[in-house]
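A protein record pairs a chain with a discrete description of its three-dimensional fold. The shape at a given residue is found from the number at the same position. Here is what such a record looks like in full:
>
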Amino acid sequence: MKTRLILLIFLSSFSISYAQFTSEDYELAKANFTRNYESPVFKTYLNSSDQNKVAASLLSIAHSADTNFVNDIIKLNYDESGDYIAFALGQIGYSKTSIKYLLDKIYSPQNKFEKECFDALGKIFTVKEYQKLCEDYLDNKISQTNYFALTIANAAIRGLEINTKLRAKVLIKIIGKGNLDNKFYALYALYRSGGSRQADKYLLDILSMKDEEILFPHKIYALSCFRRVESFPGKFDLVKHFINHRSWQLRTEAARTFIYYNFTNQNEIDEYLALLNDVNPNVSRQAAISIKLMKPNGNLKNHLIHRIEEFLDENLLTNNSFGELLLSYSELTDADILLLIEKYKNKLDQNFILLLLTKLNTNCDLKLKYLSKFEPVTNDIVVNWTTALISMHDSLYNSDKYKNLVLKSLASDSPEMVNIVATNLDSEFIQNNLNEIKIILKKYITEYSNNPDFLETTVAIINLAPGLGEDFSNNLFTELSESKLPGVINAIAGITGENIPFQKTNRRFDIFWEFAFNYSAIKFTTNKGEFTIKLYPEIAPVTVGNLLYLSHKGFYNNVSFHRVVPNFVIQTGDTSGTGWRGPGYDIISEFSFLPFEEGYVGMASAGKDTEGSQWFVMHSNFPHLNGRYTNFGKVISGFDTVSIIDQDDFIISAELIKN
């Protein structure tokens, strides 16, 4: 418990210092919902003497991407609203004025909102400014550097590159001598930028410290840094310590990282394999996934394979761990895939059978025959079925049976199936079947282009269209330019370079607003237990109102957690169980500086303003989500339940809790 208390002190310094949106801010929230930034309500709020209104306006304007707001923003009282000012400047995008303003604050000897300024600067500065900051840091020219690594982390998230040696030198200096927050962001930045063997000593020092001396998130990223360089030079005593650690999150990272340890005997391998029987299903599943990357030498590999066979035959693993372990086994050996499927078909979920078929590179005619047994395809296996089908493309694209099955899939009413096929068609197949494909896609656009469930699929078709001929693509883009979905408009603009006017309607806004401030929390009952989420309508009123509205309707009852990434997130909210669908409409993004740390709850999306019904709960701290996904709540009880939810577990019911 002591470790978690320290975590709250050091890593949760982003906090709601005062209320932002209230139930009285209807007009501002509505203008934000429609993305009507020409409305005078924004500047009215911005110039208010009420700091709540100023903050609400800045949170809204942050989504505008309109740098014309910058001059008004920097005139605000920094001492009162500096955190929101910095956030808005970082979210709006690059502006020379914003860069100068933030740099002035960073170089100032007194800066009340140092963290927020470094965070914002890392989101918008250029390579030139990035490099100079690093040089000035090493030369001790920056007055406050407690969060300097955060700006490097954001640069790494953006893929902004500077001299590798310079970056590594800065990060290693911080990891060795920085304060706890700065160390954390330096570790994260090092992980995101690919790691460095020069940091080995410092990383081992962090891993060797007693848990009371350093926070477990630091150790997670120290392990992750070793994983990025595919090496772990530590002693087996340290390996053993983390394999048996009390934190399931650290055991998960141990499963990911220690596959790169140089195992010296069978006992060491057996101790690692004990993770397969971990009490936490996420740890077990991660070990089953990671094992395929182990590369023990000679007899040790034979021992590893023998022990995996024993685990498979014992049948004591969860369905997900068993399936993942069999997939790993198939990659470690030259076993016949079809024989494996036949041997274990009574233990395997259909999705894992399909994943195994995807890996089968030979006997494609037999594979196609085997695959046909799964027709008609239900939602829960459609993605893997289509992936297995497309995996045969290079071998069977001249086969009439294969061609007909692909075209049938492209013409299906499954957005998942259409997306996978459209994304993977090559130019030769397209030219050989051009007329059929044009007819199918034209019909698809007419029926589904305004359906948010099909957004990603429509984007895939937009990207495919230029290969179908200039006239066809121009006609397609003209029709799609009337779409009500911002993601569609953005995709067309990305190809054509045209700026297509778009404004969201206010349909459903009043429904969401009615719910937003009437409840303080929501309790979800799952097949694994209960957990309760405290809601933040003051930060994300539309998102909170939408979740409450859907929950009130019973939308989430019996909906599965279709995506569980161990020590990252659990995700739910798709009634099809595929992860591709939503409620039949989309809502706006409501980004903020709330951190995506353990227990926080965010909205899944396919891009800005494409959220719907899917949401996720964080297992650990992942800064790359901050300001890029809507954060609207936090688990305040039942995190033990969140920790043991496995893929395909499900919500039984939702209970709305009054204020």
